[in-house]
From TrEMBL:
It is found in: Cytoplasm. Keywords: Carbohydrate metabolism, Cytoplasm, Hydrolase, Magnesium, Metal-binding. Residues 9-20 have a biased composition (Low complexity). The gene is fbp. Pathway: Carbohydrate biosynthesis. One of its GO terms (cellular component) is cytoplasm. Residues 181-303 form the Fructose-1-6-bisphosphatase class 1 C-terminal domain. This is Fructose-1,6-bisphosphatase class 1. NCBIfam families: PRK09293.3-3. Homotetramer. Coiled coil: none annotated. The lineage of its organism: Archaea, Methanobacteriati, Methanobacteriota, Stenosarchaea group, Halobacteria. InterPro entries: FBPase_C_dom, FBPase_class-1, FBPase_N, FBPtase. One of its GO terms (molecular function) is magnesium ion binding. It catalyses: beta-D-fructose 1,6-bisphosphate + H2O = beta-D-fructose 6-phosphate + phosphate.
Length: 309
C-alpha cells in the first residue's frame, strides 16, 4: 500500500448510477459499523454447528451470527433490494431497492479454530443476482487482524479508487491510504493441495517460487491483503478434483477482482478478467487469480486450455 494521495475519484464514478453508488457507500459504512460487533462475537462462537452451507462446508456459530447481523443491518438500507450470503441457499428480498448485496460474512472462518485472521467480504451490484462483475458499484472487505481495517471502493469497476480504512471500536471508518499495488512484487500464496494442481498451473508455480516468497494463510481476504501490501499473486486455482476451484464468483471472486483491479492489478479465471466471467448462479465457483499485472499475464500464458466462462 503506497503513500497518501489527494483523493482523486473518491466517491461516485461518472459511469455508475449515483443512487446505486450512494447505496454502496451506505452498505460499506454499515459493514464497518457491524465489524466491532462481529469481532466481539467471535470468542464464544468457535464451535461447529451440525450443519453445512450451500457449498457443502461446515458452518460455525460465528458464520451464522455474522450472517444474521449483516442481513438485519444491510437489508434496512434504502436502495438495497436483495441480500445474498454464502451461508444461505437463496437470496432474501429486502425491499424495492435496485441494488443487491452479496456477502461472505466470515471469509476464512476455519481460521477461528487456529486463531488466524479472517474477514468479511461484501460486493454491491446494481441489479439482480447473479450479476456480472461489471455491474459492481462497490466492494470491500473487513480484515480482522491485529487491528480491524477495511479496504473498499465505490463506483464502476473502471473508475473506482481503492482505499484502506481503520475501523474504530465504535465502527467508524478513519481514512488511511489509497491502495496501489507496489511495482516490485514479493509474495505469493496458492490454495489447494499441491498434488491436486493441474500440470500447467504447477509449471507456473515452479516459475514464481524462484522469484517470490510464499505467504499463505488460508483466508482469502488476509492473503489478498498481503498482495495489496507487498505486491505479488494470490490464487485459488482450478484443481484436478474441482475444475472450477473453490471460491465463489458472486461473494469472493468479483469483489476481490474489483479491489485488485482498482488498485492497478489484474484478476483472471485463467483466461479473462473475473469481472468478465458470465454469472450463471448465486453459488457458482470460479478459479481465482489476482495480483500484479505481469504475474497474471504470465499465468494466462502458462495455462493450456481454459474453458469459456
Ligand atoms: P469460507 O468462506 O467458507 O471460509 O471458505 C473460503 C476460504 O476459507 C478462503 O478464504 C480461502 O482462500 C480458502 O477457503 C482456503 O481453503 P483451503 O483450506 O483449501 O486452503
Amino acid at each position: 500500500m503506497e503513500g497518501a494521495d489527494s483523493d482523486p475519484g473518491d466517491g461516485a464514478a461518472d459511469s455508475a448510477d449515483p443512487d446505486a453508488v450512494a447505496a454502496a457507500e451506505a452498505v460499506l459504512e454499515a459493514v464497518a459499523a457491524a465489524a466491532p460487533e462481529i469481532r466481539a462475537g467471535l470468542p464464544g462462537r468457535r464451535r461447529y454447528l451440525d450443519d453445512e452451507n450451500p457449498s457443502g462446508e461446515d458452518v460455525l456459530a460465528a458464520d451464522v451470527y455474522a450472517d444474521e447481523l449483516l442481513e438485519a443491518t444491510l437489508g434496512d438500507i434504502d436502495g438495497v433490494g436483495t441480500y445474498a450470503s454464502e451461508e444461505r441457499e437463496s437470496t432474501v428480498d429486502t425491499g424495492d431497492g435496485a441494488v443487491s448485496v452479496a456477502v461472505d460474512p466470515l471469509d476464512g472462518s476455519s481460521n477461528l479454530e487456529s486463531n488466524n485472521p479472517m474477514g468479511t467480504v461484501v460486493a454491491i451490484y446494481d441489479g439482480d443476482l447473479p450479476a456480472s462483475g461489471r455491474d459492481l458499484v462497490g466492494a470491500g472487505f473487513v480484515l480482522y487482524g491485529p487491528v480491524t481495517t477495511m479496504v473498499a471502493g465505490v463506483g464502476a469497476p473502471a473508475d473506482a479508487t481503492i482505499r484502506e480504512y481503520l475501523v474504530t471500536g465504535e465502527g467508524d471508518r478513519e481514512k488511511l491510504e489509497r491502495i496501489e499495488l507496489p511495482d516490485d512484487p514479493t509474495v505469493y500464496g496458492f490454495g489447494g493441495r499441491v498434488p491436486d494442481w493441474p500440470d500447467d498451473f504447477a509449471a507456473y508455480v515452479d516459475e514464481v517460487e524462484d522469484e517470490l516468497k510464499l505467504r499463505y494463510g488460508g483466508a482469502m481476504i488476509a492473503d489478498v491483503s498481503q498482495v495489496l501490501s507487498y505486491g505479488g499473486v494470490f490464487a485459488y486455482p482450478a484443481l484436478e478434483s474441482a475444475p472450477d476451484g473453490k471460491l465463489r464468483l458472486q461473494f469472493e471472486g468479483n469483489p476481490v477482482a474489483y479491489l485488485v483491479e482498482g488498485a492497478g492489478g489484474r484478476s483472471s479465471d485463467g483466461a479473462r478478467s473475473l469481472l468478465d466471467v458470465e454469472a450463471t448462479g448465486i453459488h457458482q465457483r470460479v478459479p481465482v487469480h489476482v495480483g500484479n499485472e505481469a504475474l497474471i499475464e504470465r499465468l494466462e500464458a502458462a495455462l493450456d486450455e481454459v474453458p469459456a466462462r
